[in-house]
Design brief:
By secondary structure, the protein is of the alpha+beta class. About 40% of the residues lie in helices and about 20% in strands. The chain is built from four helices and five strands, in the order αααβββββα.
Length: about 140
């Protein structure tokens, strides 16, 4: 059993962030994969220069966490049984007039959006939030 886990970690670490995210989406094969894929497309539309990575790989999570960056981390995308969570690294400093942030609201730095099965994504507001995160990163660089 341990050998299989370490083989998966080793295989995942050889792939680029984009390929690991592709594989993770395909592996999910349910609404969470569809949601993560949709959110990823919106991130790429909002910032065509975004860099995709997978960080924090470990035996219990050989895929790691999808991370989208531009002059610093914009957001991460994690999948849970009941939600796909986009966590904005500097979300506490972003205006959110549409009220997208619905998780991790008490922190001093991060803010997150939990998407649940059947949720409709406010695409325009999410793209605006992504662009604001990119601008904040550029300002702080």
């Amino acid at each position: 059993m341990k050998k299989r886990v370490s083989q998966r970690v080793e295989s995942a670490s050889r792939l680029s962030g984009t390929h690991v995210i592709d594989a993770r989406i395909q592996q999910l094969a349910d609404w969470r994969g569809e949601m993560l894929s949709h959110l990823r497309a919106l991130i790429q539309q909002a910032d065509p220069e975004v860099v995709e990575e997978c960080k924090w790989k470990k035996p219990s999570n050989p895929w790691g966490v999808p991370v989208w960056s531009h002059d610093g981390i914009i957001c991460t995308g994690e999948t849970y049984k009941a939600a796909v969570k986009l966590t904005f690294a500097k979300g506490a400093f972003l205006d959110d007039p549409s009220g997208l942030f619905n998780s991790s609201l008490e922190g001093n730095l991060r803010r997150a959006i939990d998407f649940r099965e059947g949720d409709k994504v406010n695409e325009k507001a999410l793209k605006t939030l992504i662009r604001a995160a990119v601008a904040l990163n550029a300002f702080k660089s």
